[in-house]
Amino acid sequence: MIEPEHPRLSIQRQCALVSISRSAFYYQPAGETPLNLALMRLIDEAFLETPWYGSRQMARHLRRQGYEVGRMRVRRLMAKMGLAPIYQKPRTTIPHPEHRAYKYLLRGLTIDRPNQVWCADITYIPMRRGFLYLVAVMDWATRKVLSWRLSNSMDAEFCIQALEEALARYGTPEIFNTDQGSQFTSPRFVDVLKDAGVRVSMDGRGRWMDNVFIERLWRSLKYECVYIHAFETGSELRTGLTKWIGYYNTNRPHSALAGATPDEAYGQIQAPPYPGLAPDRANPEHKLAA
């Protein structure tokens, strides 16, 4: 809203008109230091192995590796990464009136066919000079990654984009399961599911096992792709994830699928082309396999 080259209004006057200080206009947010980025990567690796670690235990873990860090610093970094330990907590938080938490619908349910249940989750992706967040939509029965998006913030928009792409390309599931993160309880996200006639399911608080298959996806993706490449930029990361997810869907067999790949297990349902894409671009995984 501020035009620095405005012919009649100074920057100070424009700031006053929109009720912000001039220093706020000039402020440039500082990124994390190289040390904090290194700590965040170590925290991420440790959290894959010990998801019950809170900030106190994580700080002890880092100090044993030679890093003099305090609990408050670790707590801030874990919050920035979207990590929370899985132990049960007292139900003292009052939910936002517009962010309803839905019942978990998968307990005791036999999930044995494509498009019966989809799930989604967000994870932190470290790079050499920063980090991004990744959301993925997965078919529960076949483990196929249906869509994904990267973002530099934890807002709901990139989650909605991934959901809309999956619905457009692969049809409609019966149930969609997520955790109770604010991105997934957002009315805009839930409304997309309701408008499509999808039943909404959400994990219990601290119950990462309720969405265990996508948690296993994150583990494989990070150990087989992210950690060994240490991508420099977002574009490099996007290219690397495109290749790995293509390999995961088309060439990586799963013992739970009797040795089939996710694409082979999902293949009994033909995916419609994504609107606006040419047929050879509608499914980039198959292009990568070729």
Which ranges are low-confidence, i.e. pLDDT below 50, for 5 or more consecutive residues?
88-96, 268-290
Which second-level CATH architecture of the largest domain applies? 2-Layer Sandwich
CATH class annotation of the largest domain: Alpha Beta
Largest sheet: 5 strands, mixed
pLDDT averaged residue by residue? 83
Element order, helices and strands?
HHHHHEEEHEHHEHHHH
Strand order of the biggest β-sheet: 3-2-1-4-5
CATH topology of the largest domain: Nucleotidyltransferase, domain 5
For this structure, what is the CATH homologous superfamily of the largest domain?
A: Ribonuclease H-like superfamily/Ribonuclease H
Structural class: alpha/beta
Radius of gyration: 21 Å
How many domain modules?
2
Our count of helices gives: 12
Please indicate the percent range of residues in DSSP E strands (runs of 2 or more): 5-15%
What global shape is seen? globular
Helix content: 40-55%
Number of strands: 5
Q: Report how far the terminal alpha carbons are from each other.
A: 48 Å
Overview of the structural elements:
By secondary structure, this protein is an alpha/beta fold. It folds into two domains: 36-81; 117-289, Nucleotidyltransferase, domain 5. Helix content is 42%, strand content 12%. The protein contains twelve helices and five strands. It has helices at 11-17, 22-26, 34-49, 55-64, 71-81, 157-170, 182-185, 187-195, 212-229, 234-251, 262-266, 284-289; strands spanning 117-126, 131-139, 145-151, 175-178, 199-202. The protein has a five-stranded mixed β-sheet with strand order 3-2-1-4-5, with helices on both faces. Strand 1 and strand 2 form a beta hairpin. Helix 3 crosses helix 5 (71-81) and helix 9 packs across helix 10 (234-251). Residues 88-96 and 268-290 have low confidence and may be disordered.
